[in-house]
Each structure stands twice: as C-alpha cells, then as structure tokens.
Amino acid sequence: MEETLARIDRTVTCWMQRNATMLLRWSMGIVFIWFGALKLFPGLSPADGLIRASMWFLPMDYFIPFLAIWEITIGVGFLIGYGMRVTILLLFLQMIGTLAPLILTPHLVWASFPFGLTLEGQYIIKNFVLMSAAVSVGSNVRSSDTFDVWQRPHVQ
What we know:
There is one protein chain. The chain has eight helices and two strands, in the order ααααααββαα. The protein is mostly helical. It has one domain (about 20-140). Strand 1 (about 110) and strand 2 form a beta hairpin.
C-alpha cells in the first residue's frame, strides 16, 4: 500500500511540476483579459468606482479604456506565452496604479487600519498573489544562455 501511495504521489507531483507554469500563465491570462474586458463596458467593472475615486486627476474617458486594453494585453501575453519578460513588466507597471489607492484613497481601502480591509481593499490586496504568480512564471523564462525577450517560458 505504501509503495502504491508513493507511486501515485510521484505521478501527481511530476504532473504538477510539468504543468504548473502553464496553468499559472493561463489562469493569469484569463483573469487579466476578463477584468480588462469588464472595464470596456462603463459601470460593469467592480473596480470602476475605485479607479475613478483614486485617479480623479486623469481623464477617465481615456484612462479606463487605456487601462482595459493594457490589462487585456497582459492577459493575452500570459495566454500565448511569448514575450513573458514584456508581459511581466507590463503587469508590474500596472500594479503601481492598482496599489495606488492604498495611499491615494485610504478611506476606500481600510475599514480599520491596518488589518480591516473594505471589499475594495481586499480587491487590491489580492494583487500580491498575482505579483507573486508573475514572479513564479518569470522564474521559468530563461531556458538558455541567450536573452530573447520573446522567448517562450521554459518548462522542464
């Protein structure tokens, strides 16, 4: 019985190792495309009010569609797997704006500082998982000694 469980464990963990980066890329791609696409339809994105309140100094008629296309571009990059370095750079640049409400509109983020988050605050904080996932995907892009910005991530 112990040998059978060990074999099953090896099979499952080997499958996870072979597929983890691809599944992570695909799930991130879906999230970014979905959240970006919602921004193309006024009032449909749950982040719409937070964006408008936090980035009040930007022209929203242009900024929100720009942000939507930016996020969709990130998503497509993760889905197709080419240009991971550029895709991850775009993600981290986008995260600067995503995390900005923590400072620009703290009253919308914190119900009780420093631990009590509003729903909007939780929406923002979950982005630390996306940033960590991007680091994980990025850890697999170097498959040779040559630097190719469009290279597909290496999966062992």
